[in-house]
Amino acid sequence: MPPKTHRNNMARTSLLVFCCAVFWLSRLDNGVQALKCKCDNCKETNYTCQTDGYCFTSTYLSKSGGVEHNYRCLDKRQFFPPEEPRWCHSRPTTEYVQRCLDRSLQVPHNNPLLCHRQNPLNSEFVMECCKNEDYCNVHLSPRLMQKPQAPKFSNFTTAEIVLMSVIPTMLLCFIGVGVYYFYKTKHKRGGLHHHLRHGEDSIEAPDHPILKGVSLQHMIEMTTSGSGSGLPLLVQRSIARQIQLVEIIGQGRFGEVWRGRWRGENVAVKIFSSREERSWFREAEIYQTVMLRHDNILGFIAADNKDNGTWTQLWLITDYHEYGSLFDFLGRNTLDTTGMIRMALSIATGLAHLHMDIMGTQGKPAIAHRDLKSKNILVKSNFTCAIGDLGLAVRHDATTDTVDIPLNNRVGTKRYMAPEVLDETMNVNHFDSFKRADVYALGLIFWEIARRCNVGGIYDEYQLPFYDAVPSDPTIEEMRRVVCVDKQRPNIPNRWQSCEALRVMLKLMKECWYHNATARLTALRIKKTLSNFRTSEELKM
């Protein structure tokens, strides 16, 4: 073969190999990069498009308000910006790009994606891209955020809108006026009267005929002789409505105690908070027990509920004693032996009267105090005492041999609780159990009085029982440990052995606070012992 012909054949062969290589490389490139996507406007290619970029699905609101979807391809040449297509960047961004929007970038041509804010919370347009597999956009369904529906007033006339605004306002006004007149009427019918606190005479409550020109003491004697059950309710209300509150003299868990004035006479007004209504009712009920009135029981005058329009005050009105409670008196004063015996005898006499069951048509049931302590005993002007605060008292029904007692039997002041109350071994169905618990507390009160007895210029400072064994506000567990487990009782000063009156008091104390409740003295026995000692001392003089 001639050399020229051979060179031509070699050239043709090389060109053919080059063309084949280019063709197969092109096919290989297309095979790797081509991604098939669903295309809703590619009818001629069986609703399929191929791309070297992404498949996408867009959801948007049409002009008619309906939700529509688009399925398309997004070629790399249409990426904007080229490094990361904005269409597929669903998170809001603060970056801004300023460029021209060529026709080739308007995808789709009739509603370009670049002209919409891409935000997953968009309520008008949203899209999602994918490239993980062919036709992956079939499974995409981006959802529009629901717009809150604003109230539509377009269907109402101006007059209707005004009426809808005015009628509720007028209705509220009518309700307010109705409530006002309701309370005003109630105020008139119920005799609502604001109590006066600073010396102004109250003229709101008309006098009951029995009140004209009489003192409290005379009126009580006149209306309670033969019954001892307290004043008639109408008289009680008339008195309560005419009382002026002067100054507060005490506070407790129940409320406040005020010094009040009624026609120039001092009275004590115990004001219970509304949540203590049961205590108020119980104490008023006990005080009005037939034949209860006694010189050594705090004198009851009246009970009333006073409604000031906002809340109800529960008043309990009793005799006023300027020396205050025995607790306060002992903290400020000392006693001689005569004064000590006088006080102790008066308390024992009052307790014996409470415990006594008087038979007959005008009889009195036996009553146990259940919260006897120095703070609940008042010191009278003659330095005798009167037992008060009967809100926790229980009564004995002799005909049925039952005890009228609230559901909770653990009441009173923990420091003065008897051992059987602390360890819950007391028989609450047996009335004598409550009387014995009162006697235990009486022994502790005698100890408080005896400490303040001044003999030869020597006396002890005032202290509460068990002051050296428990904290100021002991728990049930602390008192149980001291009284029941350790069986401690208040310490006895040695000096008491050198005085006959103190020896008598000491003997009574020990017989009051026996651990075995049945071994304790009765209140009547204590009264007789002290009375006999006083008589013997008077004879010596």
From TrEMBL:
Domain Protein kinase residues, every copy: 243-533
Domain GS: 214-242
Membrane topology (UniProt): Single-pass type I membrane protein
Reactions listed under catalytic activity: L-seryl-[receptor-protein] + ATP = O-phospho-L-seryl-[receptor-protein] + ADP + H(+); L-threonyl-[receptor-protein] + ATP = O-phospho-L-threonyl-[receptor-protein] + ADP + H(+)
Spans through the membrane: 161-183
Gene Ontology terms: cellular component: activin receptor complex; plasma membrane
Listed EC numbers: 2.7.11.30
Enzyme's top EC category: transferase
Keyword set includes Transmembrane helix: yes
Signal peptide location: 1-34
Keywords, alphabetical: ATP-binding, Kinase, Magnesium, Manganese, Membrane, Metal-binding, Nucleotide-binding, Receptor, Serine/threonine-protein kinase, Signal, Transferase, Transmembrane, Transmembrane helix
GO MF term set: activin binding; activin receptor activity, type I; ATP binding; metal ion binding
GO BP of this protein: activin receptor signaling pathway; cellular response to growth factor stimulus; nervous system development; response to stress; skeletal muscle organ development
Known cofactor(s): Mg(2+); Mn(2+)
Residues that coordinate or bind ATP: K270
Domain of life, source organism: Eukaryota
Main location: membrane
Location(s) in or outside the cell: Membrane
CDD domains: STKc_TGFbR1_ACVR1b_ACVR1c, TFP_LU_ECD_Babo
Family to which this protein belongs: Belongs to the protein kinase superfamily. TKL Ser/Thr protein kinase family. TGFB receptor subfamily.
Protein name per the record: Serine/threonine-protein kinase receptor
Gene it is expressed from: AUGUSTUS-3.0.2_03240
